[in-house]
User: Which sequence fits this backbone?
């Protein structure tokens, strides 16, 4: 029954233009829908590898081949895209368990990196300790 629901949801995503492609997570077996944004970037619409979370040092290399952990600049670019598509932040909230995602941006020798979250009607990135596990979303590499 769950497989039928997943297939129907994926068809719905594709049918309304939310899913550009689907990436299978080998650790969880889940399909990750993606979305092509107005600027041409393609984002995971669900967390990679479920609820486990990653410490920053593992998060920066956790995305599958052809994908990468978004930088703070890429997260903040999503804020600009929110002006064009106000539903975007709700889509990020709706299709995942987390409200906090790692950025690839790290600061010098200090043990901090940016953690981005969906707060209100925007994405906010703040420095945090890299030893805590958080979720990740991946962005497709530019061709």
Assistant:
């Amino acid at each position: 029954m769950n497989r039928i629901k997943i297939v129907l949801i994926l068809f719905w995503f594709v049918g309304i233009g939310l899913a550009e492609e689907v990436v299978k997570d080998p650790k969880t077996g889940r399909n990750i829908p993606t979305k092509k944004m107005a600027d041409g970037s393609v984002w995971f619409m669900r967390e990679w590898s479920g609820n486990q979370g990653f410490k920053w040092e593992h998060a920066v290399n956790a995305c599958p081949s052809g994908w990468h952990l978004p930088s703070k600049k890429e997260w903040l670019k999503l804020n600009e895209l929110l002006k064009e598509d106000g539903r975007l932040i709700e889509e990020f909230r709706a299709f995942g368990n987390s409200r906090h995602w790692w950025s690839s941006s790290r600061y010098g020798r200090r043990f901090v990196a940016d953690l981005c979250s969906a707060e209100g009607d925007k994405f906010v990135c703040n420095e945090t300790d890299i030893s805590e596990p958080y979720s990740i979303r991946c962005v497709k590499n530019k061709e």
